[in-house]
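Q: Protein A?
A:
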Amino acid sequence: MAKTFFRLQKFLRRIQFLLFFLTAAYLMAGSLLLLQRTRLVIQQGSRGTPTNQVLPVPEEMSRVGIIEPRTLQSPGPRLLVRMDALQEPALDQQHSPHWLVSRNSELRQLRRRWFHRFTSDQEPLQTAGFKAMKHTAEHKGTYMGCFTHDSRERTLKGAVFYDLRKMTVAHCQEACAERAYSYAGLAYGAECYCGNSLPAAAAKPEECNIECKGEKGSVCGGVNRLSVYGVEELRAPARRRRNVIYRGCFRVPENLTDTFPASLIQPNLTVEMCSEFCSKKEFPLAVIRGQECYCGYPTRRFPLGEGTDGLRCSGTRNASSAAAGQDCLVYQTPVQDTRCTDRKFLTTKSKMFVALSSFPGAGNTWARHLIEHATGYYTGSYYFDGALYNKGFKGEKDHWRSRRTICVKTHESGKTEIEMFDSAILLIRNPYKSLMAEFNRKYAGHLGYATDRNWRSKEWPDFVNSYASWWASHVLEWLKYGKRLLVVHYEDLKQSLIPKLKEMVEFLNVTVTEDRLLCVENNRDGNFKRSGAKQKNFEPFTQEMKDLINRYILTVDEALRGRNFSGLPREYVPR
């Protein structure tokens, strides 16, 4: 009996091995067949594609091997080859937190390199039929033509906007019209530029051949080419929505003509008249002294630091009654200060690998906005956030270990992840504010607010219980394992922007001018200030939650002082 049972067991083992072998052979045969079919499709596409018109690939995208499918306007047979590889983020998430979806990093990198070789080996895809593209789909502006565009020396020198997913001609026109510009130009299918004078060098109409990301059938420029539209007829209705911001009453600088490049003397001068005049001249500041209007930027001569007593400017904010002596009224026009909007990747790999570390909801995106505009270099990210990439944070798609960015955003707090970096800026925010900001982001994105229903759900108490301890452990572990740290408190950065930002820039070993820092202050909010109805005196924290968070606050404060850093700001003190 035992001998029979042994033979049966031996037979079953052989059957199991045979099944495993057959399964492996079947999978290998299927993979080889798929690769063979792919090769045939590629060969057929290369033989059957016309060669009358070439669509070049933007340099910035080809550098990292990522090409947006919509920029390849001939969806021929070759596009059947793994187009989903285009949208894979170039990240190594081996050490990502548990709430992020893990992926096979090696397979992703191999697929990315393969597709980059494939697109570079084949001739560029064709764009026959692009001449038939519409220039007047759903928009009202006048099409002025196709012009050359140099990102380093822009021809439209006004505001700049990005939307690498939903850019349309109408969206760009409205954005420029609301900011008092006369022309709107689009490039690369997703970039919008504004200005008050046409570019000097015209290009061939067929060179503007890239379809808008958010509007099929419409042209949004090309590679180093601008599709330019006049928006004069849109400016009248847009004028109602323009936001002219009162900056305060300030002392008049010593030399007005050297400080302000443009001026106007007008009887019965009004704020609207001065703002309109300065907007046409593409200046972000309108300065009024009596019947005199001056236009310019915040500079060392006129830094807009401390204002004078508002009563000295008559308190009415009426232009004609403003003091004609040593004081003036200052207004922010709709025009964007563009002295600090140019950004690029590092030309050589950085020797220091710097992290911009924070707990989620602590203002990391805002800090990245400030750093990018102050230094002129992109920041990277340990993760990939499509919403941030679409709005102009181009370092999102650059591999976080490339060292082509000035610093790398991270929320990680493990020993291995921390020790990978040579130094770090540790950004800390009040945990009450951080928890609410992250909860808002989780349920309403970067710019919205969670609903009352979200706050009253059982998910909010669970969120606080799990995330409050993470807020504390994040700081404690960076203090323990960080090699070289600069601790920055969000509240201090918000209150004393230029001194703290200068400290951060020096830590990054970058030299910037005072005027560039003043430009950053002028654009301090960027496009990432939450909009919508914010509840006043809203208190979502129960006493039990406060007791828990307060214990963590005291622990972190003690740890900071133990490392000879300044303790937490007073407003962190238990409620």
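Q: Protein B?
A:
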Amino acid sequence: RSIRATKPSEHTVILAVVPRTSADQEETSVLPLLNAGFNRQFMENSSITACYNELVQIEHGEVRSQFKLRACNAVFTALDHCQEAVEITSEDHVIQYVNPAFEQMMGYHKAELIGKELTELPKSDKNCADLLDSINTFIKKGKEWQGVYYARRKSGDSIQQHVKITPVIGQGGKIRHFVSLKRLHCTNENNKQVSHQLPCSDVQRLQYSPHLRESHSFKCKNRRRDSTDVKSITSQSSDAPSLQTRWYSSMARIHSMTIEAPITKVINIINAAQENSPITVAEALDRVLEILRTTELYSPQLGTKDEDPHTSDLVGGLMTDGLRRLSGNEYVFSKNTNLSHSHLSVPNTINDVPPCIAQLLDNEESWDFNIFELEAVTNKRPLVYLGLKVFARFGVCEFLNCSEATLRAWLQVIEANYHASNSYHNSTHAADVLHATAFFLGKERVKGSLDHLDEVAALIAATIHDIDHPGRTNSFLCNAGSELAVLYNDTAVLESHHTALAFQLTTKDSKCNIFKNIDRNHYRTLRQAIIDMVLATEMTKHFEHVNKFVNSINKPMASEETSSHSEGSDCECTGNIKNFSDNQTLIKRMMIKCADVANPCRPLELCIEWAGRISEEYFAQTDEEKRQGLPVVMPVFDRNTCSIPKSQISFIDYFITDMFDAWDAFAHLPVLMQHLANNYKHWKTLDELKCRSLRLPSEN
């Protein structure tokens, strides 16, 4: 009793050692011992091991619990003095604790709240109808929720709070409590209240404490395990003054550098904004900085690979360079690209095109133009004929100051270097992309945003964008250790090859050199534009191009249109775009990307044909990978098991929908979007019926 009377004994475990009772005696009650201040009793035992085991069990059980309880006093003291309002509830939302800051903010006394369910308290009518349901759904999954919420004080006033609710997971992985941190949301009408609630933010405290500021900055900025603390190095280098001097000299030069990357400027602006921001804003900006420091800013992250193997395989096959080469496996192009030009016949003019071809080409300005009919009547040479017609319509020869004979010779050389043996990447695909590009160039907003040079560059880029394509992906070439993969360091292998070969073939012979009569400056500008567009068709930067287009073109244009409508004036959006070459570059990239993969937006019959052709090419690649013992880049494209509808659905969902939504918002393409919706419905129907082919059996 005297031990219990002292303050330090509050969390002490006291064990009563009692004599053993004989077998004929009745065991006595432990209540007198407990009332005297003991925690438990222990029957005396002559075995040291038995005594030791009892002590170990007490230490691991009651003693540790008492330690936690003793720490709880400190925790509750901290909570009582915390300037943020804190509310702790059970898993059933029964209030178990509120701190004085909560009482002050809400106007209630603690005794009025403890034991009440949250649903019993009056609610503000300023919140969205489904906000509470959304919050409950979120936190019941064990996820932290934070956001702005209106609460009603005891007086009936509604106040806007920034709330963070954290579920507390207990034994068995179940949620046992919810901890809510609340502070007044910073608005003009309650700034005065905020000023006495939050005298200084975390950021301000960092400013007042050099030690805290340094540790905070290193925590934020030096994420890598091998990042080096300047002070730790200099403090260890007292015996090496020259090293220390060099270090300080280098640091001084770094801080005085005037060359600053755009991302550095962004981070510096955010850091500056944090200094005078409320805690909630500073924390949000910290998360922004975390995202900016990642390397893949534009690529969305897929879930587990098992969720959708079709999407995962498409992403793996189209957006990565695959594994590296395996020794002994080399893939070399079978085609001889050093084509001689001596066999070319004397070019005819556009007026000498056979009537059956000319009749087809009369419809080439329509989106529903059937490229496969042109492929058939031209004996798989649609690119020359379509190219002559389209280039004439856009005045390419006039811009380049070249003859129609030179243009025709050039088109023949380019088409001859497409592989007719490829089921998909052949000159018909090139002609299809050229047709789509020309169609987009005819749209008013596109036409108003680009110069004549941009139009010529786009048409040439579309024509050459897949020249000498081997019918295999970049990943395959890298895995196989092909000559091209080695030449281009496994980076944008095919796209680099397409542009390089096209310019080699063009400038090799005066008869087909369409650039021979333009001045050097025009040529360099045109060449750079063509290269940039072809490289944009490489899928590893797909999401980067789309996101840049949305943020730099779509959003500013939508904002300008909104303001112009409100002012009652016409929008000068396209004029503003034309003033910035970077914006024109983004438009050209987006245009050729959409043209390159426009198959799902073509009329259904054309869409089905293209889907069959690309699937066959992927099947052939999988077959060859298995034959050569190479890694199989896209396992779902096995001709014996593949579901073509599933692959098309995945491709549309992951790559097409967002991109064409953005392009449609700019260029206005209702016909394409209608075809896309119809085609998607076709593939979904087949998939629901477990059909793996291009059409239903009855349609076949």
